[in-house]
């Protein structure tokens, strides 16, 4: 073999070894930058032209992550509108926040996110969400942040689609997709007027298509597309409204998970802080908590013959666990 041939072979093997490294380094740099970049949340903590202070609306604020969003936003200087469907729970959270942050103002908003139908657009059916009433209730404040946190599965959470009732499918879709969509549609004019403004829609990493949660997973994927579309819409009309879909993984201290917090299943406060820390990240869809991003990357890297049976077995185990607890 000639010297030139030896050189060619050497260069080939160097390229073979270095190519994966060179492909990985930009992704690693992007990952480090994304999760070390300072949050831009304070951009949205501004008074309006009349001097009114900034307010944030948190849906599903009576428990878990929503309650922690309210605490964190209050700590960072926002007044907060607390949404829920249980007046007693809302009163409890408002009382706790008032004691913890006496310099802040708080309001409550009662609405059942699952109660949406075509009748809500044409009648005064009290069982449907009255979005116009919500807009009226918030018209006098400087609303700059909307956290669409309300969501979750309708019991039984883990169930084959063909065994799910029409009522359950509609309630799950209303709660996780249609309510945040309609609420944004109604509040965007106010957010645009009060810009810069921020919308965060809490999604889930199950949006990759986990079995036995088809309706829930599809509803969460809906939020990703909505964030991408609205980000482009705001750019088209030159409005300073940031729209984020935050994909979350397992989180403890929520209504569906009371287990002890771990590295990969943080407590609700940690997850809420991680979501708010992504404000200004420059991406419309992002995993909020960096260990969840590592989980997602590892799963994505697995070959399908390993991933598919593992996903099916995990989903089957969770479905059986839920059935055993009933």
TrEMBL record:
It comes from the Eukaryota. Keywords: Oxidoreductase. The keyword Manganese does not apply. This is Short chain dehydrogenase/reductase. It comes from Roridomyces roridus. It holds the Pfam family adh_short. Belongs to the short-chain dehydrogenases/reductases (SDR) family. GO terms for cellular component: endoplasmic reticulum. GO terms for molecular function: oxidoreductase activity.
């Amino acid at each position: 073999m000639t010297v030139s041939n030896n050189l060619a072979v050497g260069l080939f093997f160097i390229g073979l070894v270095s190519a994966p490294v060179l492909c990985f380094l930009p992704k690693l740099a992007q990952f480090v930058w994304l999760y070390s970049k300072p949050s831009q949340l304070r951009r949205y903590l501004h008074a309006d032209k009349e001097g009114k202070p900034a307010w944030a609306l948190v849906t599903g604020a009576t428990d878990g992550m929503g309650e922690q969003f309210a605490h964190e936003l209050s700590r960072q200087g926002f007044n907060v509108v607390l949404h829920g469907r249980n007046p007693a729970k809302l009163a409890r959270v408002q009382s706790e926040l008032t004691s913890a942050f006496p310099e802040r103002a708080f309001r409550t908003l009662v609405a059942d996110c699952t109660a949406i139908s075509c009748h809500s657009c044409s009648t005064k059916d009290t069982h449907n969400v009255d979005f116009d009433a919500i807009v009226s209730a918030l018209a006098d404040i400087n609303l700059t942040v909307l956290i669409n946190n309300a969501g979750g599965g309708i019991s039984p959470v883990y169930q084959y689609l063909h065994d799910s009732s029409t009522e359950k499918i509609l309630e799950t879709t209303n709660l996780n997709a249609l309510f945040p969509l309609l609420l944004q549609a109604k509040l965007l004019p106010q957010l645009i007027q009060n810009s810069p403004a921020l919308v965060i829609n809490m999604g889930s990493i199950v949006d990759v298509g986990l079995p036995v949660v088809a309706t829930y997973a599809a509803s969460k994927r809906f939020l990703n597309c909505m964030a991408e579309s609205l980000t482009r819409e705001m750019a088209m009309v030159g409005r300073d409204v940031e729209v984020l879909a935050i994909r979350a993984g397992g989180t403890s201290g929520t209504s569906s998970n009371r287990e002890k917090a771990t590295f990969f299943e943080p407590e609700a406060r940690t997850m809420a802080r991680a979501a708010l820390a992504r404000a200004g990240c420059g991406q419309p869809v992002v995993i909020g908590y960096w260990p969840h991003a590592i989980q997602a990357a590892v799963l994505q890297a697995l070959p399908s013959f390993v991933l598919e049976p593992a996903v099916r077995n995990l989903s089957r185990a969770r479905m059986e666990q839920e059935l055993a607890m009933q």
